[in-house]
Amino acid sequence: MTGMLKEIEGAANTLGTKLQFVPATGSGDLEPAFAAMIKERAQAIMIFPSPMLYGQYGRIVDLAASNRLPAIYAAREGADLGGLVSYGVNQSDLSRSTAVYLEKILKGAKPAELPVQQPTKFELVINLKTAKTLGLMVTREFLLVADEVIE
Fold this sequence. Notes:
The chain is an alpha/beta fold. The chain has eight helices and five strands; from the N terminus they run H-H-E-H-H-E-H-E-H-E-H-H-E. About 45% of the residues lie in helices and about 15% in strands. Strand 2, helix 5 (about 75-80) and strand 3 form a beta-alpha-beta unit. The longest helix has 16 residues, at about 90-105. It starts with a helix and ends with a strand.
């Protein structure tokens, strides 16, 4: 997570954008986190990868929509549920590679001897319905690089 934060801070500095980190590690943190963002006049939100928040994507999408905040999610389910954009690991590919590892372990391979692998397929999903609701214009160029566009 530290590496991700450094990358995001570097990108924000390059773009001249101010970041506000609002921690939310579980369902009880969502309303206070959104209240803090609204108080500070956030213009958009980014949901970091989190197993605790993944199950809360529906609520997060609703809170973002009710506060008219464009949001980017780490998993496509965020865009599928009505979030603006998702960019992250393709969960199906990740599950398949996990199954290959499990098969090797069940056949006697020692987990410590298996090579560490990183995800290789990431996907960008854009929800045009949400963009229109928020009054946002999505450029043709951005649509062309998307893996999927929800209309």
